[in-house]
Amino acid sequence: MKRRPTKLSWLPAPIGSKTIPPSRLKARRLTTSEATHQTPPEPEDAVDNERGPERRCIVTRAQGRPQRMIRFVVGPDRQIVPDLAGRLPGRGMWLSARPDVLETARRRGAFARAARQQVAVPDDILQIVLDGLARRRNEALGLLRRSGQVVAGFVKAREWVVNGRAALVVQAADGSPDERGRLLSGARQLPVVEISGAAELGALFGRDHVVHAAVAHGALAQRLLNDNERFLELSGRAVPVRQPNAPDEGEQAGT
After folding, report:
1. What range defines the domain where residue 57 resides?
2. pLDDT at residue 20 above 60?
3. Which of 120, 192, 234, 254 has CA 20 to 30 A from 240's CA?
4. Are 119 and 138 members of one domain?
């Protein structure tokens, strides 16, 4: 009976012999059983979707511009934290700026699925986001004031509106409706940021009260407008859609 050669008894391949490179080796076809037990792809909720011009909501799956959505991250204590500036480190989880979407994410564990870990979501997460957006609006107005990109008072604000320097106007909600309307006469297309009261708006300008202000074009004006739109949507109020250079209802632009 011949003895079967062992691995140690194999002779080395002669010099100059051809070997098949790994790139030419054919892959073995998987059996049905093996294919069934392959590791499934990572769920889409767990993918850190923060590239490109749009973000995907982890609840509705709808895509939108990040300026109109809310980003959340997991804090050091595993608590969900709103990242309104979009700069905090960590895996970003994006939500459409709607109160029903935020409530659905809180109740149905959407944050935990997207973060792939257990997280704590504050019961008043909606109010936390609204308060944060209100602070950002006030901070933007403070920066605009210090940089000379905003004027307060009806006369100065009206002058900016007429000569086209105003990108948007800021008005106190408790101001005279007629006077607020006259400020925008012939320029109803301008966006309006509404602050709750003249005393609150005045405090931002170091005055007792301010009803009207006009903001110049620029990055700060766009930031203020974006934060205001998110604030309105999360408050359940409609964001007015204004067409540039559209004439007022019942009047012609420029009259």
Report:
1. 45-123
2. no
3. 254
4. no
